[in-house]
Write a structure and sequence with these properties.
- By secondary structure, the protein is of the alpha/beta class.
- The protein contains 10 helices and 15 strands.
- The strands form 3 sheets. Strands 3, 4, 5, 6, 7, 14 and 15 form a 7-stranded mixed beta sheet that branches. It has a 6-stranded parallel beta sheet with strand order 10-9-8-11-12-13, sandwiched between helices.
- Helix 3 packs across helix 4 and helix 3 packs across helix 9.
């Protein structure tokens, strides 16, 4: 339902396709919150690789057309629907998903997907929490069952999920190894919780990781590009080690024998498979991190809404990612 007479700027996708299908409209009706819904004035919205897969029509779940992309917003509550008691107008919040899409000046969200944003974090950081941090938490703790004292290797540690994983792993007492593809990226990974870093552009970087792990191997690998690294990951693992698949852009041939002697596991992660209980648990754990100060999102490139096509090109094409890409409104 739309608020009478009020309109907003929003990106709309009328057909699946390349980045240029992201069109900015200036006369989109402003939605009104229904029962258990919150209307948020968006100050920033995160850009995620999954947004590009959905836009291209190649993702497992396709929204009905037309639609507005974007799930991770941060902003201020503008209005609340019936039965909403946990938030009021003026509250600073961030979301784990939205109903009407985050690439817009206003968005609707179900109250159970809205979380308080402490004043320690700005809105751009708030928009960098949901997909990166909830994914990293799900991968490291829910799926890998990471424990203090274990060694975790974060592949692609300078991106949004990678930085989140390093911060969480360090806070939970794991030894953290991270890879990146540039001197700047390696430095950022070190600053965000990694004990040791490795340049994945160096030919012998796998050997260096093996050496750093000693004879025990790596307990957990968080893998952002499994179509490139999975075969090597299996060789790096300790007995009982597990590779957690967070990202993939194609197929790869592996030798299943590499899993047998070590009884290792390959486990996929999909954030949208989280239950309400999963969201609640992760949200509570991450809020502690915000209050304690170790959850500190690093912001990367910033774009206005009208540059949405460029942002979608950049997030896939640009290698050596550093920090979280956001729209600023």
């Amino acid at each position: 339902m739309a608020a009478v007479g009020r309109v907003m700027r929003a990106i709309r996708v009328l057909e699946f396709g390349k980045p240029d299908v992201l069109k900015l409209f200036t006369d989109v009706p402003l939605p009104s919150p229904g029962d258990n819904q919150v209307l948020i004035r968006v100050h920033a919205c995160g850009v995620n690789p999954v947004d590009t897969y959905i836009r291209a029509g190649v993702y497992a779940r396709k929204p009905n057309l037309p639609y507005t992309p974007g799930s991770d917003v941060a902003g201020v509550v503008d209005d609340v629907g019936k039965n909403v008691t946990s938030f009021k107008k003026g509250d600073r919040v961030f979301t784990s998903t939205t109903i009407t899409g985050g690439y817009a000046e206003y968005t609707l969200a179900s109250v159970d997907t809205v979380f308080p944003l402490p004043v320690k974090l700005n809105f751009k950081q708030g928009a960098a929490i949901s997909v990166p941090y909830f994914t990293a938490y799900r991968a490291l703790l829910t799926k890998a069952r990471g424990r203090s004292g274990e060694v975790v290797l974060v592949h692609g540690a300078s991106g949004g999920v990678g930085i989140a994983a390093c911060q969480i792993a360090r806070a939970y007492g794991l030894t953290v190894f991270g890879t990146a593809g540039s001197a700047e990226g390696l430095n950022i990974v070190l600053q965000n919780g990694a004990h040791k870093v490795f340049n994945h552009r160096e030919k012998d970087y796998i050997e260096k990781i093996q050496e750093a792990a000693g004879g025990e191997g790596i307990n957990i690998v968080l893998e952002m590009l499994s179509n490139v690294n999975l075969s090597n990951d299996l060789k790096l693992l300790s007995t009982g080690g597990r590779v957690i698949i967070i990202g993939c852009r194609g197929s790869i041939e592996i030798n299943p024998r590499d899993t047998m002697a070590k009884e290792s596991s390959i486990i996929g992660v999909a954030l949208f498979s989280s239950t309400k209980e999963d969201w609640k648990e992760a949200g509570a754990a991450l809020f502690v991190g915000m209050e304690a100060g170790w959850l500190n999102p690093l912001i990367g490139p910033e774009y206005p809404l009208e540059k949405a096509p460029q942002a979608h090109e950049d997030i896939i094409e640009n290698s050596g990612a550093t920090g979280k890409m956001v729209f600023v409104l």
